[in-house]
Amino acid sequence: MTIPPIALTMGEPAGVGAEIALKAWMRRKELSLPPFFMLDDPRRLLRLAENLNWPVTLAEIDRPAEATRAFEGYLPVLPRPLPGSVLPGAPDSANARTVLAVIEEAVGLVRDDEAAALVTNPINKAVLYEAGFRHPGHTEFLAELAGPDTRPVMMLACPGLRVVPVTIHIPLREVAGRLNQIEIELIIRATVKALKTDFGIASPQIVVAGLNPHAGESGTMGREEIDIIKPAVEVLKSEQIHVLGPAPADTLFHERMRETYDAAICMYHDQALIPIKTIDFHNGVNITLGLPFVRTSPDHGTALEIAGTGVADERSLVAAIREAAAMAERRAASR
Question: Is the pTM of the predicted complex or chain greater than 0.85?
């Protein structure tokens, strides 16, 4: 099935987003990458390629449809000039509004079916906050753009493992107080739905991690498993969802155990992200479930300390582009 090209946002202009995008494009034939285009400032992309002595040629496009034809010989760019300075490793708050505007525009292109999916390069939230950004991260911003009834769910995926954290960017001391049965049920339902529609898994198998050591050990190490997590699991079982748990988190992620489930529901950020980044640091992908459009992202930050050096690893972005295309194809086929 032929789908429109993938839209790739610029992310933080002082970070590594541009160079990993250029690296991905330079390997497009070797990796058989689907066509993508960037919403970015062509001047800064050319300057970066020249500084690194990379053989990159750009094609400035007016509409995403032009990207598919141009992609084989040129990196397609929908020009969006940056008003501030662009110095690797040194963010300029003057560029913040353009960074946000590009994300909004890219969402619009996907929703209008001009782009198949959205792949977002990492942003610098500290700089965006100076421009009035009020969200904890990309996920919450995209949910606002999607509409008031949207409930985003963050999934991290690499070959052989998918994890979904119930709580995300909050202090560890607040996690137990934020957990509730209804939220866990909603997140698991959203995960099961996405595994069917976006990943083509007919009968998803879910495992749920406990919060406490040894999953609370029958209440002697905490009652969250008894009072919150297990009741949610029982409700979902009654709905014919294949879900197990709560299970001790320290035994969920070894190789043999990973073969028994399609996604693990984790109670907090690091419980989910540490296994992903340990198992396959360079090929992890951040996926937002529950949106009316496909969105993926590399599973790393702006890496300001190495920006402009050319050493940033492009594999996570490559994986994000591939995953976005595969998800978009499945959604298109199911319409």
Answer: yes
